[in-house]
Amino acid sequence: xxxxxxxxxxxxxxxxxxxxxxxxxxxxxxxxxxxxxxxxxxxxxxxxxxxxxxxxxxxxxxxxxxxxxxxxxxxxxxxxxxxxxxxxxxxxxxxxxxxxxxxxxxxxxxxxxxxxxxxxxxxxxxxxxxxxxxxxxxxxxxxxxxxxxxxxxxxxxxxxxxxxxxxxxxxxxxxxxxxxxxxxxxxxxxxxxxxxxxxxxxxxxxxxxxxxxxxxxxxxxxxxxxxxxxxxxxxxxxxxxxxxxxxxxxxxxxxxxxxxxxxxxxxxxxxxxxxxxxxxxxxxxxxxxxxxxxxxxxxxxxxxxxxxxxxxxxxxxxxxxxxxxxxxxxxxxxxxxxxx
Amino acid sequence: xxxxxxxxxxxxxxxxxxxxxxxxxxxxxxxxxxxxxxxxxxxxxxxxxxxxxxxxxxxxxxxxxxxxxxxxxxxxxxxxxxxxxxxxxxxxxxxxxxxxxxxxxxxxxxxxxxxxxxxxxxxxxxxxxxxxxxxxxxxxxxxxxxxxxxxxxxxxxxxxxxxxxxxxxxxxxxxxxxxxxxxxxxxxxxxxxxxxxxxxxxxxxxxxxxxxxxxxxxxxxxxxxxxxxxxxxxxxxxxxxxxxxxxxxxxxxxxxxxxxxxxxxxxxxxxxxxxxxxxxxxxxxxxxxxxxxxxxxxxxxxxxxxxxxxxxxxxxxxxxxxxxxxxxxxxxxxxxxxxxxxxxxxxxxxxxxxxxxxxxxxxxxxxxxxxxxxxxxxxxxxxxxxxxxxxxxxxxxxxxxxxxxxxxxxxxxxxxxxxxxxxxxxxxxxxxxxxxxxxxxxxxxx
Lengths: 340, 446
Hints:
The structure holds 2 protein chains of 2 kinds. By secondary structure, chain A is of the alpha+beta class. Chain A has 8 helices and 11 strands. Chain A has a 4-stranded antiparallel β-sheet with strand order 1-2-5-11, with no helix packed on it. In chain A, strands 9-8-6-10 form a 4-stranded mixed β-sheet. Chain B has helices at 3-7, 15-25, 29-33, 37-41, 56-66, 82-95, 116-122, 136-145, 160-175, 190-200, 230-236, 242-245, 248-251, 254-264, 358-372, 379-398, 404-408, and strands at 47-52, 72-79, 110-112, 126-129, 149-152, 180-182, 207-216, 270-276, 291-297, 303-310, 317-324, 327-332, 336-341, 346-349, 402-403. A 9-stranded mixed β-sheet of chain B has the order 14-13-12-11-7-10-9-8-15. In chain B, strands 3-2-1-4-5-6 form a 6-stranded parallel β-sheet, sandwiched between helices.
């Protein structure tokens, strides 16, 4: 007993030192020398994820009218300026997401010292236990988390921010497309020829009707895997097919259409369930009420779809961390869903 | 919604076919006999809807009925409990806050207690029956007696006398040309319709065996509250009492059993099986099992292995598979419809990402059938698939081989003798608050 108490005390000291170090690190990371790939451990667990640096810059968002498979909502093409950020090298997997979904998994995976620590993360609301098997039998360890609402994905970011002290959120549509292109102006990050798509992406043509382990294809030039395909990824934006029309003069800086309505939110990248054209860098998708068709309750779940096993997400972290007040503006309040 | 959704119907007919079909009937004897259709066909009337059973499913079904293209409005609501009715009314009102004329339920049209259904039914043209299944026979019988069209949620009974009551009311509804659409929504889902059409066309040869699964973590629990009578407690926590729910093999797994009945174009002639409650055995878990495994035999000797489990942290699976002389097929409610040859090569893979919502389609069908006066009544299917599931439960509870005729003709009623908050319940708790659990080898089921 005596030994254990000392051990607790010691671990507290270690934790406090670690927290101080990490705070210093956050400040220092604004220097470009620190802006590199890193691994984040979800505190108190053995689960970690990788982030790749995405340098700031300017790009042409949307697709030209000549692009094969293009839809009207991808234009007009317009210049966009983006601030630097880190982006998850991979789509968020069930390994990470389940720690958030199931408090008991979090408790099991945490060591004694971190369990005693009350965290601001505990104040973040958690998803209701899902009614269906949310993997749809497609695999869990290393496979992308799927079927969560945009609210659930964003609340995961809020929880992760509280746990790590680093501001994680969903990417805006603009950030997502910029990162996907990784400097390319072609239909896909690797060029225009969709016959090369199998090297980089899981689509309906090669997925055998299911998600695949994240990172099992080639990454893009900035080290990001599965930007094309596997799961379509949530963005921070409300979907508006005519949103680009306003950006005709000069470059838009960090555009973000903040959602005010539940439907539709914008998704990017296409999925294992889509044909190649939907996986293009500029292709836009949007959420639909029918994705909750098998949710028998009214109002429907804020956290889960029942029929969207093709959507997931990845996270970003802005290089320049905003103030807590600024960060709070990114989090969303749930909107009741009375069905479509 | 896309045009495809609007025009969709389960038999492969489009809405236009419905219209053509009804045109053929005009002038025939049928139309003039109808109490209601004449007025509606004139185009001036709005169809009045009542919902009986205002839980999550009733609320969802009411919203779907109100979301059809027809001129409809909700005029009456009934539920045993006022708080459930109020929640439902508030949710429906919020859903239609921009289309307020669709929800017109004044205070005097909100009915509670055990008898409210009669008054709500009287005010409507179309009735949505979505209470716990034990009440369905009573409510369906009354709706048909009053000459109303019905959306009949599954399952439609919890015991054999209830099934027979529904079968009799279904016949009566046919005579009165009432439209009845039952809520086994896979019957209206494109993935099923398209895949089963291929099975019927011989895509896997003769079907010789089937598996049906409903494995998941289970459902809500509503713990006993101070001051509740035993009747109120059972009504609130209804999932765990057989007279109300019929056990989860009936309440949920019926979907999967029904798919096999559909493909076999018949109902099992006998059943034997096993089951129990290994994990779901808490103080608020009433009397039902948490797992059943039933071997159903069809007239041609085909065996359906039917398994359902409500246990957290175990394999999840909700689907149906078929083995044929030339191949295999797998279907599920998430839109899967896969046919392979005997070596596992995929020969058909249904793709329906933007398919209509079958829960909406079933209401579109009901209201289109009413508008066009096209016969539609599949209550008998719902009753017999309910009977199949109940026969499975009889097998697992008793450990005996149960034959269809014996099961269907059983006079064993699970229902209370009277409906009142202080009335005697069919099962009663012991001093610790626990209920007798069905025990194979001992429990009598017929």
